[in-house]
Amino acid sequence: xxxxxxxxxxxxxxxxxxxxxxxxxxxxxxxxxxxxxxxxxxxxxxxxxxxxxxxxxxxxxxxxxxxxxxxxxxxxxxxxxxxxxxxxxxxxxxxxxxxxxxxxxxxxxxxxxxxxxxxxxxxxxxxxxxxxxxxxxxxxxxxxxxxxxxxxxxxxxxxxxxxxxxxxxxxxxxxxxxxxxxxxxxxxxxxxxxxxxxxxxxxxxxxxxxxxxxxxxxxxxxxxxxxxxxxxxxxxxxxxxxxxxxxxxxxxxxxxxxxxxxxxxxxxxxxxxxxxxxxxxxxxxxx
Length: 287
Fold this sequence. Notes:
The protein is of the alpha/beta class. The chain has an 8-stranded mixed β-sheet with strand order 5-4-1-6-7-9-8-10, with helices on both faces. Strands 2-3 form a two-stranded antiparallel sheet. It contains 10 helices and 10 strands. It has one domain: Vaccinia Virus protein VP39 (Rossmann fold, 3-Layer(aba) Sandwich), CATH 3.40.50.
């Protein structure tokens, strides 16, 4: 699938991913020791929703962040996420409270980091990397790497901090993308067995999760929690009706914290009666 993020920015998949990413960062910070945040496919950092080219298709953000923008009584995790997007949108120059600018994963996670934490953002596309460098120019302990993110876990783990949260969110444009994800995860865990890996994936007939899920389950690489969100039933004729996040070595009690978030997202983002969420263990935690 050709996932042009400038067009998809702020859609339901971004909402799902970014809310859970911020919650993972906060969960990592329950321990006082610093950690490395590594984003292997970071993108450009800022997306102008008014300029996204969908090739004639309607923009996707109204059915994502747009659904939450004016919502009342949001659960704490979603209210925190919307407040972060609102602050970014205002700082980026949006007029009044009109939603125009949406932050990518790096700029939603970066403000949460403590002075002792560190981040590394990888982006292979030169224009995207240059844009992200501008966004992060004044951030302490942050570096943008113009490199293929699939090699980052092997090259950057274990970190000096001895703790790491690794987000792998590739474009899924190549047929072997999930296999490359699996290799990167296994190499990273070999070097840093306690690192937390969060792997985003589309729920699509063209992007099977088997190349990742099978080795994780059969080799029991690490305790693995699977969170999924579907905004439409399986029979819906859409390019992307759902997505998931496979979390290896999830922080303690993260499953209990994620469940009400997913339930709220189903209620807020559903497009038909087939909307649903899933939260279970691919590899159970040791007792």
